Amino acid sequence: MTIYCIGRNYAEHARELNNPVPTEPIIFSKPATAALRENKAFYLPDFSQNVHYEVEVLLKVGKPGRRISEDKALEHISHIGLGIDFTARDIQDRCKAKGHPWEIAKAFDHSAVIGDWISREELPAGSIRFSLLKNKQTVQQGDTDDLIFPFERLISVISGYFTLMLGDIIFTGTPEGVGQVHEGDLLEGYIGERRMFWTEVR
Ligand code: ZN
Description:
Order of helices and strands: EHEEEEEEHHEEEHEEEE
Largest sheet: 7 strands, mixed
Strand content: 35-45%
Helix content: 10-25%
CATH topology: Fumarylacetoacetate hydrolase, domain 2
Shape: globular
Structural class: alpha+beta
Number of domains: 1
Number of helices: 4
Strand order of the largest sheet: 2-1-11-5-6-8-3
Oligomer: single chain
Distance between the termini: 26 Å
Radius of gyration: 16 Å
Bound molecules: zinc ion
CATH class: Alpha Beta
């Protein structure tokens, strides 16, 4: 299982980190060892002093494919979910400044929280509204209507480079409001009123 992630897919988030709004999806990946499931605790890694949460809508691949066209793209998605793309922001900033890949800031063990899944048919029509609560306060709110690149485009572009396999997961980007996590924080992700995951930071 591979996790594909999209950087800067909400304009307000690109701006909050002083990044230009992209004209093509920015793709990176995390290995299967990055997954953190079943609401397990997240342990702050010792190599970073500034780990950020990024709440994101997830797509689960239910049918493999490569070079998928946009009009067929959603047929390849079986489930929608919610998760966190934990990011060692200090390391990412250093990597970016040197023009290096940011793998170590993004793809480390347990950096990808994966919550419950909703089958695509079960999901009400229209955009997906989602949020992240930190210690019961809302810190991020998103609406997939605000995606720069919609799901169909992401699936089409990713599968142009990488064969999508059954069970692969796509993190579709985070809205504005990212911030640092601290020991003792409780993070809870919601789609609408439904709690999709929680994790305690240790
Ligand atoms: Zn992200």
